[in-house]
Design goal:
Blueprint: H1 2-31, H2 36-97, H3 102-133, E1 141-145, H4 146-160, E2 168-170, E3 178-182, H5 183-199, E4 207-214, E5 218-225, H6 248-252, H7 259-269, E6 273-277, E7 285-292
Parallel strand pairs: 2-4
Antiparallel strand pairs: 1-3, 4-5, 5-7, 6-7
Bound molecules: adenosine-5'-diphosphate.
């Protein structure tokens, strides 16, 4: 919180200096009413100083905020890497030092495999975040059937997180809706949105996915959850790299703040748009992805 104090200090400093400059300016004008040329020069000069001061303060505050987010990101990534590594180490040590029954051993192997998957997931996300930013990167364009894409993504998340059938609801539209896109990247988009919907929905997630046409040229995918929701002021910010909504629910669900930044950059590369809608904390969230249809 030292940074926050520094930010407040600079903010107060900036405002005080601006007030001082204005007071000086007015005093100076009153003393030198007759010297008009000098007066104009002085006014312009002071205006410049004040503008400079304000810009300086805004820049400092922004920079400090960005640094804070980078720190939070590093902490989150370190944690995401350390936890599964420590867990795998513990199980390996136990396996080495004790003669366990076959069933117990198998259970340990499964846990280690899950930890390994978590590690891979984090590493992949960090890699994707940098590659998704390269706009020129070659895309493997093909016709992608969105109903199939959504069903595959639901199946993957359900298996990975061992979820019941009724967690996800999706009834594909009767008409086939396809887009021209990179299958791997679009899978990443759906995977991240569904994963978040589960992560931020507490004990009893109910997630519904809808696919429909908007007009004749745009395909729309809605991913709605019954989770913690997003405060109005954060609806745009969640797509920024490293940004995580500061609340208990987000702290409980581990993450790096990269998922939605990856989603946005992929969707935009495909000529589409993505936005978040929520009626506030505790009221669930809907993510809407729009993509140009083939
Ligand atoms: P991560 O989940 O790794 O923190 P994301 O970029 O995927 O990063 O999400 C950024 C932030 O947006 C999350 O930390 C969370 O606060 C918020 N968020 C994302 N999806 C949801 C959701 N479905 N419901 C509520 N909050 C969400």
């Amino acid at each position: 919180m030292r940074r926050r104090k520094t930010a407040i200090f600079f903010l107060v400093l900036g405002i005080s200096l601006s007030i001082l400059a204005v007071a000086l300016n007015i005093g100076w004008i009153l003393l030198n009413l007759r010297e008009v040329a000098m007066l104009i020069f002085g006014v312009v000069f002071f205006a410049l100083i004040i503008t400079g001061l304000i810009l300086n303060t805004i820049f400092l505050v922004r920079e400090i905020r960005r640094n804070e987010q980078h720190d939070a990101f590093l902490n989150a990534v370190t944690h995401e890497l350390k936890t599964p590594i420590a867990s795998i180490k513990l199980y390996l040590e136990t396996l080495k030092s004790r003669d366990l029954e076959r069933a117990k051993r198998n259970e340990f192997y499964d846990i280690m495999l899950a930890d390994n998957a978590r590690l891979l997931g984090t590493v992949e996300q960090v890699l994707q975040a940098s590659s998704a930013r390269e706009k020129q990167r070659q895309m493997n364009l093909a016709e992608v059937d969105l109903s199939e894409l959504i069903n595959d993504a639901i199946r993957t998340i359900r298996e990975r997180r061992h979820l019941d059938e009724e967690v996800f609801r999706f009834s594909p539209p009767s008409e086939k809706i396809s887009v021209l896109g990179d299958l791997d990247e679009l899978q990443t988009v759906m995977g991240n949105l569904l994963d978040n919907a589960v992560k931020y929905s507490g004990e009893d997630p109910k997630i519904s996915v809808r696919l429909k046409l908007s007009g004749t040229r745009t395909a729309e995918i809605y991913v709605r959850d019954n989770g913690v929701g997003i405060p109005r002021g954060d609806l745009k910010r969640v797509f920024k790299r490293f940004y995580r909504v500061p609340n208990a629910a987000a702290d409980a669900a581990k993450g790096t703040g990269l998922g939605l930044a990856i989603v946005r950059s992929i969707v935009e590369k495909h000529g589409g748009r993505v936005k978040a809608e929520s009626r506030g904390l505790g009221k669930g969230t809907t993510f809407v992805v729009q993509l140009p249809r083939v």
